[in-house]
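cache lookup: miss for this entity combination. No prior model stored, computing from scratch. Input as submitted by user K.M.:
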Amino acid sequence: MRRLIAVLFLLAILIAVATLEQVYVNHFLYNLDTKSQQVSAAIELDDKNLEREDVKNSFNDLNKFWEDAKTKLCYFTNYEKVKSVDESFVKLSTAIENNDSSLAIENIAVIKEYSKFFTYFMGFNINNLF
Amino acid sequence: MITLILRSLIVYCIVLFAVRIMGKRQIGDMQPFELVITLIIADLACIPMSDSTIPIVFGVVPLFTLVILHYLFTLLNRKSIFFRKVLNGRPIIVIDSNGINYNALKKLNMTLNDLTEGLRVAQCFNLNDVAYAIVETNGNISVLLKNSAQPVSNEGMGIDGQQSSLNIILINDGKLLKENLDYLGLTPEYIKSILNEEKIKSVTDVLILSIDKGGEIFLQEKYKPCKTIKKELELNVK
């Protein structure tokens, strides 16, 4: 009986963790996509001048969101996969500060790509299953 | 480095917990499905232990999933004869009245060397002595000797021997085991009186003191030879 309780407890923990992870990943990817689209739109509005307030504000918003999410992602993602995106955030920040539009466009594309394809690392789908 | 040490501790505790849940059979004679799970668990435990970029849940979640799967398989194994056959296979007779069953050996992927080695492990050194040999589902070989090779027993000799009883340890490396004392209905004072009679000053000087229901005491002081003492005891076994 004790063993059955322990096994049921483990099962409950696994279901809870799996559900929480799925919900968090969906929520995280949706927000990352929305916020990176905002930065992308702000950059494309006038890519000759990246020192505008709207670009800085949307990037700060995206960066703050990423910094918060990054610490949580490390609990259930291989850090190596997060690191490459983290580097893109640093490059994007530098590009905006230096008004380097090509570097900014390149790195915001990496972040947008991540928000679309990260689900293949984390979420439950047929590709991950096999 | 501290992370790796702490990770190792956490993973060790989790694997220990998992093996405890899976039961003692996991450690001893393993059935095929138990062996598979044990091998996978050993590998899973290593992944998050050595690589700090991988979250610990990458090892823990599959581990717990296997524990649940193992519980299910054990349950099916107990309840269903069909599943027992599928999961464990069935015992196969490799030696019978016709001698060695070569087909059975081939089916088991066993060589004659494996068979003779198994027989020797079962204390049988002569093929002529074997009436039956069976390869059990866990790979052990059980041997039934021919009548002529069976060891002499009390029953065979018509001797009505005293019923053997369990030997219970009361002092283990200088420590009095209260649980066992309670089981036999003895008190620490009684044990101390035995020690006094044997001129032993303290419980801590005793390596082992065990007693059986017939009142035979096995006593050994640390760094001294053992003694056997016979006592008339009224044991109150619970």
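stored under new cache key. The helical segments of chain A are 2-45, 53-73, 79-97, 101-117, 119-122, 126-129.
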